[in-house]
Design goal:
40% helix, 173 residues, 14% strand, three-stranded parallel sheet, alpha/beta, Rossmann fold
Length: 173
């Protein structure tokens, strides 16, 4: 019994310590972004902002390039925000007003933590819901409940479609 309790206590301490692990992404233009990086996925998502797809599978230079075209104070709907990589980027770099939608509870927790770390509570409003092209209440099935995971069975196509449509739009209406 004592051994099991010690093991559990060590796991709790490990989780607590991992929540203090923060990665700074420096763009060299006076803008630094902070991200909680509790595992390799969250670390790679943070680094993806400054890397290309051949360096990092999470890199989306077309998304950061699109955000770079925003005028100050633009509005961004980040559908499937994950841990908030692009929400934080848009809010800090372009002072965009962001509405971030993320249904996965582990990712939503980290999204909120990243908002707090970057002191952008007034710019980013997180919502713990999935969006769809239909107006209804439905189940949301996540294949993996680990932080920074993005695979879902039911919502993947709809969320991907919405995000791609937003990317193609030159202006948010």
């Amino acid at each position: 019994m004592q051994n099991e309790q010690e093991k559990l206590l060590n796991q709790i301490i490990s989780i607590d310590e991992s929540m203090k692990t923060v990665t700074t992404v420096d763009f060299g233009i006076g803008k630094k972004l902070l991200f909680v990086t509790i595992n390799s996925s969250t670390y790679m998502r943070a680094l993806a902002l400054t890397q290309t797809p051949d360096q990092n599978i999470h890199a989306e230079p077309e998304t950061t390039g699109w955000i770079d075209e925003f005028e100050g104070g633009a509005v961004l709907l980040d559908i499937g925000a994950n841990v908030g990589t692009f929400s934080v980027y848009a809010a800090v770099v372009k002072k965009a007003r962001v509405y971030a939608f993320e249904p996965s509870s582990p990712n939503f927790f980290l999204l909120n933590r990243n908002i707090q770390l970057n002191n952008i509570n007034g710019l980013v409003t997180p919502f713990p819901i999935a969006l769809s092209d239909e107006s209804k209440i439905d189940s949301f099935i996540c294949q993996a409940w680990k932080s920074a995971a993005a695979e879902t069975r039911r919502a993947r196509t709809r969320i991907g479609y919405c995000r791609n449509e937003l990317r193609r739009s030159s202006k948010v209406r």
